[in-house]
Amino acid sequence: MHTPKNRHPCEIRVRSAVLDGEIVCFDRQGKSQFRELLFRRGEPRFYAFDLLWLDDKDPRHLPLIRRKFWLRSVVPVNGTRLLYCDHIEGDGEGLFRLACGHDLEGIVAKHRHGLYLPEAEPTWFKIRNRSYSQWAGRKELFERERERSPDAVGSWDSCVRACAEWDSHVTRPISATTGSIRSSC
Q1: Cα torsion at 27, 32, 35, 41 (round to 10°)?
Q2: Strand intervals (E) in 14-151
Q3: 172: left (phi over 0), alpha (psi -120 to 50) or beta
């Protein structure tokens, strides 16, 4: 399929979805580079690790492992910009050592049966690599950007308002037995 430059075919296989994930840019060795993302020098990729909305259904009341199963059916197997972030069960310490050994920011630990409810206590936590090389200068960089463009700080407020508005319209949770997912762009 031919697409104009800077346009990509729709990679998600549903009508509408809200995905939780992280945007990254990679260097030539496949390692994420924060500055490449920040300064828009690299090709961004979105790694989806959770599914918060699927067409007209709200899966946040389902366990993480079930949401991951549904997410796997939504994200393309050979995507170029949208990628599925898989999970590892049982050896979090080993995964953290590996992340540190590859100079990555850290890992996120989630309970496999955790729900994604805004009013509930979080069922996940981020474990940061204290030796991560890309921490150096990050705070100063953000402060410098904030001083240069103070209006950009306010844009976060609009994101928060948009999320709250979306959340207030969610009224139909998915039951644990529902399983059909339509695939279309």
Answers
A1: 50
A2: 17-24, 45-54, 82-84, 106-110, 124-128
A3: beta
- Residues 52-110 have pLDDT tens digits of 999 989 999 999 999 999 999 999 888 889 999 998 888 889 999 999 999 988 999 99
Q: What pLDDT, in 10s, does the model give residues 44-57?
A: 999 999 999 999 89
Asked if residues 64 and 86 have their Cβ atoms less than 8 Å apart, the reply is no
Round the average pLDDT of the chain to a whole number and report it.
76
Number of domains in the chain: 1
- Structural domain contains residue 111: yes
Asked whether residue 114 is domain-assigned, the answer is yes
Residue 31 near residue 102 (C-beta atoms within 8 A): yes
Quick check: is 176 in a domain?
no
Tell whether 11 is covered by a domain: no
Burial of residue 39 (CB within 10 Å: 0-12, 13-18, 19+) is exposed
Closest to 113 (Cα-Cα) out of 153, 166, 63: 63
Structure tokens at 174: 């998915």
Predicted TM-score (pTM) of the model is 0.69
Report the pLDDT value the prediction gives residue 154, as an integer from 0 to 100.
52
Q: Domain span at residue 70?
A: 17-136
> In CATH, what number is assigned to the domain containing residue 21?
3.30.470.30
